[in-house]
Amino acid sequence: MSANKITVVGAGHVGETCAQRIAEKELAREVVLIDIIEGIPQGKGLDQWESAPIEGFDSRIIGTNDYEAAAGSDIFVVTAGVARKPGMSRDDLLKTNAGIVGAVTREIKRVAPDAIIIMVSNPLDIMAYEALKISGFPRERVIGMAGVLDTARYRSFIALELDVSVRDIQALVLGGHGDSMVPLSSYTSVSGIPLSQLLGQDRIDALVQRTRKGGGEIVSHLKTGSAYYAPSAAATQMCAAIVQDQRRILPCAAYLQGEYGFDDIFLGVPCKLGAGGLLEILEVELTEEERAALTKSAEAVRGTLDKLQSMI
Ligand code: NAD
To answer: Do the Cβ atoms of 31 and 98 come closer than 8 Å?
Structure first.
């Protein structure tokens, strides 16, 4: 099963890798890569297409600056944005990326009013909110990528610690994308064995802390950019769940309308993804400590949202 067309907006590190992964998995007949810079998507798209005979995939990759090529896309993965430059405050970045995501969303609405948007651009929970409000799409069709990445990081660290296959590790990370994310130790297991039976609380706490700082750890190595291999893999997994109607339970940023006691906010929660996008939000039991951490995370997201609204 595959889609007719998937468009990736932003041909930077995350976008280009995402387009390549989607094409290699043949998740769509056509993969469109769009960027604002002339030549970049054309060059990258052509280079990727030239790898098709070697890798053996038939998804056509088209690089362009023109949204007409994206008309009728089933899914848009939005990775467009700018990184902070010298002299720019975080608030400047927030306003700039909100402007970019707003412009991109208007184009999506114009050329593909039935599309599903998977938001990747940061600050994630805020950009997903902007896309939902500007598009007017139902919440089923605007979903943020963060939890799949954060959970993958947590699982990868547990696998290293225990020297076991990553495939056997199940975990759940909730909350906003950032330092306030909430990894749920009580829902973490290795082939069904609760993690607490295999690791002491101090080691679990250390892995949780490394997960919280996972994005920063990569930035501290790269110095000039942020992570993209794992982020693009995460967005691709969400695309696969939707186009193949897999009904996977994945942690995603979803627009809450009362779930977990929150309203009118995007927050990472367990979601069922399938044909049509977000099929269901699952409400799991939380300990008092986890609930307090989720509330703190929601307050951080709300604070940034208020800051953006005061700027525009
Ligand atoms: P990058 O700078 O390599 O790429 C961004 C691209 O967006 C550039 O090619 C730029 O030209 C393009 N762009 C800017 N304005 C545009 C517009 N109006 N229309 C189309 N394209 C436009 O950055 P990156 O490393 O690929 O990261 C992309 C975004 O994803 C960033 O906001 C980053 O913070 C975010 N990110 C999120 C997660 C997550 O977990 N949600 C993980 C990694 C990165």
So the answer is: no
